[in-house]
Design goal:
The chain has 18 helices and 13 strands.
């Protein structure tokens, strides 16, 4: 019995060992089956991931068709069905991807697809509202994002294939353990089961190993690699995955080819545009070097970018900046003011500046470019230096000649005026109407010529700073009324009206002026208005502001054309108005009037003018003491 017990225990131990080994072998077999199941899941995942790529391609194509016929419900239904299909695919992948690396790649793919769908939906909504201005841009962006989907999808599939290598290693380990335990169970269990398991696992992993190797070759730059024909002809999931992988590889080759072709086209365009820019630059340099003016191109900060030979000849050294160069002039060129005006799209002009023995007129204008968003951008300024030395010398010679001529003409004209006035009082002249008319014509001409001579001398004295002012308080309304009374003879001769309009609350307003020069300003303005007015009259009105008073002179004369208004206050400018008028003059009246107005702290401007309807001039002077309101 004791032996029987030992035998039973040995048999029990033996069967216990057999049972234990069987359990371990079953566990290993279960692990192997689980790993094989994971292989199956990965196969399904890669097929599903490829469906994401193909469905995204179909969605982009459907978008292109839908926006072309936005009112077609079938097209919109097809587009919505594809959106639903993508949501279903992602809902499946959300639960089946287990690898952390694959999850990261999957998140990138999903975000890319969602970004693409967001852009497409935005384009659909714009198309529904009738706004198709951005459709081409949306479609081009969708094509670019579709390429990103291809790239992210390929990355995810490659990560899945890498994961199969990890599973393959686990299976290899399981195989080794199965072999160990299979050796112990070879006498107890069926040898065929172990052999079948090994054969089945190798047969299952071999295609994935081939695809993994192919993926690594492609990643290494071997785009000529191909999928094995045996895998392409397989009818199971492996064959489907191999065919999908082959289609993806062909698409990748096509995209790379298209990118290479596009790259060559862009490089050719860049080469041609570079050549055009070089030619344009050569033409620009030839043009600015051919200018008789000095030319300097500044950036927005005032740094010199370009200058021609005429400007460079003025530079004492090659490293001189424009800011320091501008200080060599008298008065100096204000670079800060040039930049400030440039930002406001305004020009800068310095009428005369001295540099050693030469005189220059300096002009600067902003360089503006139009951006695609229809907003202008200031990129710098162009500065022109005009040598006006000869012009100033000629002007000085002319002024000297005019001054001498005016002085020499003044005395005989005064004698002619005095003698003709005396002759008009003689009985033999008054008795002969024809002779009297001739004398009166001589007198009018002498008075007009004497006025022109006096204008010439006034200009010389004003510009030479040889005018002294006797400033005293003046009641502006009373003074103008008296001044107008003196000139009313001219209005009566032409049948014109001269009306004063004073606001009820204007009161007595005092200004500090030189009476003689103020009288000269009023006479010039009113005389000018009377000369160019044939019908109607002149209205003088007043406006008081906080620190100044404005006197408005409105006439119903022939008016001033817009192209002549800019030259109105220049010396010797008469314009076409003199051609249309019966009167003539020196072209100095308004020049002197503005000069005197500014000398008194005010200004004279043309408020408005219209040909055939008249003009309005505005004389502005600073307020003095206000007697009462």
């Amino acid at each position: 019995m004791k032996g029987q017990g030992i035998r039973n225990r040995l048999i029990g131990s033996f069967f216990f060992v057999i049972a234990l080994l069987a359990i371990l072998n079953a566990s290993l077999f279960f692990v192997q089956v689980t790993l094989i199941g994971r292989y199956q899941d990965i196969t399904d995942n890669m097929i599903t991931e490829y469906q994401v790529i193909t469905t995204t391609d179909n969605l982009v194509s459907s978008f292109n068709e839908a926006v072309k016929s936005i009112q077609d419900p079938q097209q919109m239904a097809k587009y919505d069905a594809l959106l639903q299909e993508i949501d279903t695919i992602f809902a499946k992948l959300n639960t089946t991807i287990v690898s952390e690396t694959s999850k990261a790649a999957y998140v990138g793919l999903r975000n890319t697809v969602q970004n693409l769908i967001s852009g497409l939906n935005s384009g659909i909504e714009e198309a529904k509202t009738g706004d198709i201005s951005n459709i081409n841009t949306d479609y081009a962006s969708a094509l670019q994002k579709k390429d990103f989907v291809h790239q992210n999808g390929a990355t995810l599939i490659f990560d899945e294939l890498d994961y199969t290598e990890q599973i393959q290693a686990a299976i290899a380990y399981d195989e080794r353990m199965s072999e160990i335990f299979g050796g112990l169970l070879i006498f107890l269990l069926s040898v065929g089961a172990v052999i079948y398991a090994i054969f089945f696992s190798k047969k299952l992993t071999a295609p994935f190993m081939n695809l993994t190797k192919l993926a690594k070759n492609i990643a290494g730059g071997d785009l000529d690699a191909t999928v094995d024909a045996d895998l392409l002809t397989a009818t199971d999931e492996v064959g489907s995955l191999a065919n999908s992988f082959n289609i993806m590889l062909q698409s990748l080759r096509k995209n790379i080819y298209e990118l290479d072709s596009e790259k060559k086209i862009v490089e050719e365009k860049v080469r041609l545009r570079t050549r055009e820019l070089l030619e344009e630059r050569a033409q620009l340099l030839a043009s600015i070097n051919g200018l008789s003016l000095g030319f300097i191109l500044l950036d927005i900060g005032g740094a010199m970018l370009l200058s021609n030979r005429q400007a460079q000849e003025l530079f004492p050294s090659g490293d001189l900046t424009f800011a320091s160069f501008g200080k060599l002039f008298v008065p100096s060129v204000d670079v800060g003011e040039i930049n400030r005006l440039a930002t406001q799209k305004q020009s800068y002009e310095l009428q005369e500046a001295k540099l050693e023995e030469k005189s220059f007129r300096i002009m600067a204008t902003p360089v503006v470019i139009s951006r695609p968003d229809n907003e202008d951008e200031i990129i710098g300024s162009v500065v022109l230096l005009e040598d006006i030395t000869r012009e100033k010398m000629l002007e000085q010679s002319k002024n000297a000649f005019l001054a001498i001529a005016a002085h020499e003409m003044r005395t005989p004209l005064t004698i002619i005026r005095g003698n003709t006035e005396l002759l008009l009082d003689e009985p033999f002249v008054t008795a002969n109407a024809g002779f009297k008319g001739s004398i009166e014509s001589i007198l009018r001409s002498a008075i007009r010529l004497l006025g022109i001579v006096n204008d010439f001398l006034d200009v010389q004295n004003l510009e030479g700073g040889r005018v002294s002012l006797n400033i005293e308080p003046v009641d502006i309304v009373a003074f103008l009324t008296e001044a107008a009374h003196d000139i009313s003879v001219l209005t009566q001769q032409k049948g014109l009206t001269l009306v004063f309009h004073t606001p009820p609350d204007f009161g007595t307003v005092m200004i500090n002026v030189d009476k003689y020069r103020f009288q000269q300003i009023i006479t010039n303005i009113l005389g000018n208005a009377i000369h160019y007015t044939e019908h109607g009259g002149i209205t003088v009105s007043f406006q008081r502001e906080e620190k100044t008073v404005k006197i408005l002179f409105a006439d119903t004369g022939i008016g001033i054309a817009p192209e002549e208004q800019g030259r109105l206050f220049k010396k010797f400018e008469t314009g076409r108005a003199f051609i249309r008028s019966k009167e003539y003059g020196s072209g100095l009246g308004l020049y002197i009037a503005r000069f005197l107005a500014r000398l008194l702290g005010g200004d004279l401007t043309l408020e408005k003018s219209e040909v055939g309807k008249g003009s309005v001039f505005c004389l502005t002077l600073p307020l003095g003491d206000v007697a009462k309101k």
